Structure prediction request, 270 residues.
Amino acid sequence: MIGPLVRREIRDAIRRYWFVVNAVAFASAGLLLMLFGQSDVMVLGYRGFARSLAGLMHLALVFVPLMAIIPAVVAISGERETGTLDYILAQPVTASQVFASKWLGVATAVLISVLIGLGITGVVALARGVPGVLIFGLLALSLLLAAAFVSIGLLVSSFTGSRTRATSIGLTVWLILLGLGTLGIMSSFVQWGLQPTLLQVWAVINPIEAYRLAGITIMDPDATSLGAVGQALLGRFGQAGVVALAGASMVGWCVGGLLAGKKLFSARAL
Prediction:
């Protein structure tokens, strides 16, 4: 029974305007960044490519969470508001199966949208000589970040009863995680006299900041753009360690949000 529900979610997602708009907007912005960075490439070589992709990475760390969390927060709350959810739960399916189908459907649609947006830019970048490891590294991290925010969005959607409230909470969560990067809270840590280790922990726990740390570590061999916190983590864990920690953080948000959302949704469906 879960198969038809997943296909329904994917079909509905593709029919909605956000699927095409997100993919086209992301691809267009990425192509502009790549073209804008070509003058650096001719002079600086590999470093120029890294800088061009760093611009794309910073676009993705803002755009990808947003394009993932918006459809996720309305996936359940929207149907709960219209009464469709009650009809679905009346069928021979469990609440866990319904939630799993929501996650699989929304995640598949979002990941395809991200894949199209970054894939078009990646093909152009490969044709111009950008190292494939940088492109595939950025793509893998972006897909992980998208999956994490799908889980966060569905967690929010699992306990909200209207689209408006779910969207408001989802956008608030996105803004908090985006605004509370290491630079956003570094002054507070200094003012409160907290240990630098806590700031490093927060940099890894925050999925957006973890994405930034891993992306810069992969793209910039010198890691000159990591900042003090990133440099400290790099010195402590090494390049592979930072990327692994950041990846584990995003996977943790993905799995943790999925499990917590399923539990809340199942409890409310009883």
Q: What stands out?
A: The longest helix spans residues 227-269. The radius of gyration is 20 Å. DSSP finds twelve helices and no strands in the chain.
